[in-house]
UniProtKB/TrEMBL annotation, chains A, B, C, D:
Coiled-coil region: none
Pfam families: Polysacc_deac_1
PANTHER family attached to this UniProt entry: POLYSACCHARIDE DEACETYLASE FAMILY PROTEIN (AFU_ORTHOLOGUE AFUA_6G05030)
Family annotation (CDD domains): CE4_HpPgdA_like
Descriptive protein name: Peptidoglycan/xylan/chitin deacetylase (PgdA/CDA1 family)
């Protein structure tokens, strides 16, 4: 494949939905399974949010990528397949949604592979990965390459796709950012304590539209992360819809699934592969462990 | 009863007021009873907020539901009866306002029944329940059914009423949500530490109006939770009034007491009863207790 | 004195400035005296904020009340006198700005009296008191009465002045509220950790104007609390000035010093004295100490 | 040099960029070096933000000051020189970005000198200093004077430059403030926990424009602090650009590098040198250590 990752578009947009359901709460402690309200708050995502968003995407005629933890796909058989059948991409979002940075290397690998096995058993084709909480380690991109996936979408070193050279081969990184995430705008739970004030959907819409416009100016990847338990709520869905309609009206924004951007970026000779390396820190300079 | 829960309305609105008074603070620790300012901050709810809101509801001609902890009804005899006399519903909001998730099963049951006894002694008819802090356990809906109540209003698995099948019979759930709650917008206390920034009433009004509009689009239950110690303040009352006036002008929003929505939903054959079940979690996947 | 506290005004406005300087930080721990930046942040209040605000009040022609901790008056001799010479009221704001709720009764009394002695030595006449952090105990209003002061301004049980009957005589309460305070909108420090996001002055101005309008509707006391180290900053001063100009243009808002409102309220026979009492809590209901 | 620091301008503006890269996170604990996403989030600053901002400054034709920790200059050889070659000032921002208030005097001195040595080795001329996290101690300004630097920019006791007399000679302070910092508006990280809600660039732009206007009114130093890992993002860069364009259109705002303002202030006889002194606190008044 030749050409540049962006083609003729001023900016490329990837709508991504992290179908976390109960997992981010259970990762705080399995005792939260006792909390019926909290569980119901999370279940809203796959049960109400996903169908609503799928219908909306149909109406808008744009494709999206759904990052699903293996545990969620396992607990709700048929969920991942239904998403794929609607023409969207299903991608790997860990098994348990525990942050890789909270695990040892063996644990991270086991969780990664357990997730992949769920999708293999369900016959869902996987091309890419996003770390739980975006909390990738330096091992993460290597695991992605080693298991033959095309891309990762957890890092933030750029606002355009970049190629990463790992010991196990090359992958593409589709960078994310906190300012293009619905979590910081909408999430609120008292136990476990999540979020502070809850923002208006109109504020998020305005902020993301300004970012999209700036990314059209600079030629970036507008990689938006939404959570069905958050953005699946009525007014937030409609705000997302208005944002997509705005982007479509711009005429220079192309909506793609992550795997399609990654395929393009992998073949874009203008992108020079980078090698990732942790900064070297010594206890003399940074005494706090 | 036949027909659907929503009738011909695009959306049904339930104005609910949680008359918590001192209880959410005392639930943090009874030492706060020493804090005269904090106690006065909470007392404003029943003493200034409730009369102001009752007058406003009269002027608007809309009915509402007041969830009252038993402890509050006991400390302020006549409060619950006065609310009921104005044509509004009084509903059960625990005895002490301690979160069910912080109690064992025996404790939760005792607190639930102690609350009901207060209302029985005061001759106030109770049809529904809302868990303190919305922090229901899996036992909560069973307690509601077992004691012959019609509905609960603490869970978040949908944005329309749903029927729940429990071991003790069926109830209706009138779901709530953080984004339709004045607490996250307005609450602030340094000790115990509550809230972060304080939002403008106009922002809350705008956000709730957008949610109402979206719920008219999707056909939902607009179940708004306000606290008299918060929304009873001058500018916040007037913002709520403007919101209700807006809804009335829409022409397709019906205002009901919770018990009336629940009665309709209980008889709505299009709603299939759900069985609630905690997710099964194992320590291998989620090692943190 | 006869007549009602409000006279013919729709609302009465009291501009109050808490000249805390370094004290709220030192109350977190005297180790912060080592933090040169934090100390400079607080010193801005009396050194830059107070002169700027005094000039602004002159230009606007409105009187105000400055609550000054005794420690601050002591460290900066002449500060309290200069404020009083400009026609404003100086009032008692504790000695050390430690919260009364964090002290035993003996400690609270000692701190209260030590503050009064500073003003006595400086020949500054004191008529009223505001608790540090507004964190009054049930003893506080008694101390105010016992020392012959006219009013306290720390409680929140109403939005109009109220009369309090204490064992040591009667006082007037001029209630405050978090939503009429600049701290929650503007304060930020990393160590000690204070605040979250910093709001625009225009947002605070809009919120306070809406509250003023609502208080004109309901006939309340618009008792605004500002801190010179916060509101003394350039854009915030100008926002406060626009707010006052708006109020003056309303034509039905009267600006008074706290002592003048208190004198009126003390003689307002329509206000029935209240007796304050802590709620009685038992460990059976609230087991957490 | 004679004349006043402000010349004929209504306000002087200094655009300052703190090129912290990984250092503020590593100062929380060197274990964060394992967090690949967090490291990538910080690396965005020097790698994407700085080049973008340098181009933008060229287009706007305004000079700026870049505060760089020695560790960052060392890890990315050529970074500081490239900034200086574009006509901007590079200034000293500690070696490790650990807060001086968290170190003993010996440690603070060692870190200060280690930073200066990096710039000396790289041939980058240094005239001024800003403390990491602005967390200066009372020793900091003395270190600045002792090492022959012209100014410090970490304190907040004024909104105009001020002269400080230290035991080691005189320096100029160019005061900063939380409300003129992009960190409180934009920063967000879950581990280490940083920030709460993420604000719109338009809100920050509006707030800073209002401050600039007020500072033109009062004749102040508009000393804006931005971080390339935050403000280097697309929509935030464009918001900063609009702010600068607004200021240029005012016609009475002068953009200068910090060292130029400091040189002017050092020669401004209307500014009387101040001696800094910690407040004296005793354990009787402030018992908490």
């Amino acid at each position: 494949m030749t050409g540049t990752w962006r083609g003729r578009a001023a900016a490329v947009a990837t709508l991504t939905f992290d179908v976390d359901a109960e997992t981010p709460v259970l990762a705080h402690g399995r005792r939260y399974a006792r909390h019926a309200m909290t569980m119901s708050h999370q279940a809203y995502g796959p049960e109400v949010g996903v169908p609503r968003l799928l219908d909306m995407l149909d109406e808008l005629g744009v494709p999206a990528t759904f990052f699903v933890p293996g545990w969620v796909a396992e607990q709700r058989p048929g969920l991942a397949a239904r998403i794929a059948e609607r023409g969207h991409e299903v991608a790997h979002h860990s098994y348990s949604h525990r942050a890789p940075t909270s695990m040892g290397e063996g644990e991270e690998r086991a969780d990664f592979e357990r997730g992949l096995e769920v999708f293999a058993r369900q016959g869902v084709e996987i091309s890419g990965h996003r770390a739980a909480m975006w909390e990738a380690t330096w091992l993460t991109s290597e695991l992605v390459a080693e298991h033959g996936l095309l891309y990762d979408s957890s890092l933030m070193a750029d606002d355009r796709p970049y190629r990463i050279s790992t010991g196990a081969g090359e992958i593409v990184e589709l960078p994310v950012h906190w300012s293009l995430d619905d979590w910081e705008q909408y999430a609120f739970l008292p136990q476990p304590h999540v979020g502070s004030v809850i923002e208006e959907p109109e504020k998020a819409e305005r902020m993301w539209r300004a970012e999209l416009d700036a990314m059209r100016h600079y030629g970036c990847l507008f990689n938006l992360t939404s959570h069905p338990f958050l953005t699946g709520r009525p007014a937030r869905s409609l705000a997302l819809r208005r944002l997509v309609e705005y982007a479509l009206n711009c005429g220079d924004v192309e909506f793609l699934r992550c795997r399609d951007v990654a395929t393009r970026a992998a073949g874009d000779a203008t992108l020079v592969p980078r090698e990732l390396e942790p900064p070297s820190v010594d206890p003399g300079t940074y005494p706090r462990e």
